[in-house]
Amino acid sequence: MKYHQIDRNLFIKNRKKFTAEMKPKSVAVFNSNDIYPISADSTIPFQQHRDIFYLSGVDQEESILLLCPDAPYEHLREILFLRETNEHIAVWEGEKLTKDRAFEVSGIKSVYWLQDFEKVLFEVMTYCDTMYINTNEHYRSSVETETREARFVKWWKEKYPAHQVAKSNPILQRLRSIKESEELDLLQKACDITEKGFRRVLSFTKPGVMEYEIEAEFIHEFIRNRSKGFAYGPIIASGANANVLHYVENNQQCREGELILFDVGAEYANYSSDMSRTIPVSGRFTDRQKEVYNAVLRVKDEATKLLVPGTLWKQYHVEVGKIMTSELLDLGLLDKADVQNENPDWPAYKKYFMHGTSHHLGLDTHDYGLLVEPMKPNMVFTVEPGIYIPAEGFGIRLEDDVVIQESGEPFNLMRNIPIEADEIESLMNQ
């Protein structure tokens, strides 16, 4: 891995939190992701399943974590199963975790080779009544491919039909949404790398460059700072392309007088950053562009103040909608009749700001978190309002990543990334 080794105490704490929520006499199992094929002998670069990483720090394919806190023998309470490594594998594929190295990474003493999994599982199951299966229940999930985890769950339930079944996901949704201090440091590192990329792009951008050239500047800076690259598909949207919310082609020329909307973020150690900025191709905003830009910035700043302990997700978005409506009225994009006659299910402001304002951030860009429960300290959210005006040929989105505090306003992990219009103009014209 490119990133520096993470203190294993983070993963020890995470396992303790998880097992404390398990039912008596139960076992939980977590699998690594598959390596997905493209064709011939080509594969997509491996991405570890975030749940097994959260609980163990193991960032390697064909790994399994088993947790059985009530097992009668200590060596069966936490077990890692790894693909057996040897000199041949080291030559052809590179270094894999040895048993000693796996302990250094995870803090788990019991490490077996994968070939012993079914035998050890059988013994553990004799001590248990309940098995915790790990299913993807994120509110944005839409999975058509059968995952390694899904195949395992099917096999496990068929193999042991007399056991009760419980779900790991509700526990992880709560635990993963509240970050430990070590996780906040990793998220800060990801945001700092994103800052380096953005500052590089500010000095690079000029009329005539291609969107993909800007993408290349970002990825260059990310990788040279120990990131694997983008935390998600980057959006480099010049001109009218910014009005396509998930524009990812990044293949158009950036022209004088246009704006470019960036929605990019570096990952670091599997933790995501998520930044949106909008800059003028020519280095100067027009008066109208700056007027709309500052309106979006005011919405972002006011929305951020609402992210405090106890805030409810649904009500938060209602309040942000009111703030946005006021700004759109001032910009002349809405009038009072539009607001008075609006459909409550699709308020008038949605014509120009049609997406949500915030989402959880962490190991996933759209991270775990139960939206029906009040916000709590050390939850991390994006704040990303936008105004999109196809008739005027531009869209503006601004986004920071913030940490909810015990009291007061959130802490901005992107506080050092330029966002004021005057500062952006100054940096682009140095």
Q: Briefly, what is this?
A:
It is an enzyme of class 3 (hydrolase). This protein has 430 residues and is of the alpha+beta class. It contains 13 helices and 18 strands.
Polypeptide structure, described:
- The protein has helices spanning 9-20, 50-56, 87-93, 99-106, 117-125, 148-159, 169-177, 181-204, 211-223, 287-305, 313-330, 336-340, 421-428; strands at 26-31, 37-39, 42-43, 64-67, 78-82, 110-113, 130-133, 164-167, 235-238, 259-264, 267-268, 271-272, 275-280, 380-383, 386-389, 394-397, 400-403, 411-412.
- The protein contains 13 helices and 18 strands.
- By secondary structure, it is α+β, with helices and mostly antiparallel strands.
- The model has no long low-confidence stretch (mean pLDDT 96).
- It has a six-stranded mixed sheet with strand order 6-5-4-1-7-8, sandwiched between helices.
- Its cofactor is Mn(2+).
- This is Xaa-Pro aminopeptidase.
Provide keyphrases for this structure.
single chain, 430 residues, alpha+beta, six-stranded mixed β-sheet, three-stranded antiparallel β-sheet, 13 helices, 18 strands
Structural class category: alpha+beta
* Mean of all residue-level pLDDT scores: 96
Q: Runs with pLDDT <50, length 5+?
A: none
Shape verdict: globular
Strand content: 15-25%
Spatial ordering of strands, largest sheet = 6-5-4-1-7-8
Determine the N-to-C terminus distance: 37 Å
* Number of helices, counting only DSSP H or I runs of 4 residues or more: 13
- Strand tally is 18
Question: Main sheet, how many strands, which sense, barrel?
Answer: 6 strands, mixed
Proportion in helices: 25-40%
Evaluate the radius of gyration: 24 Å
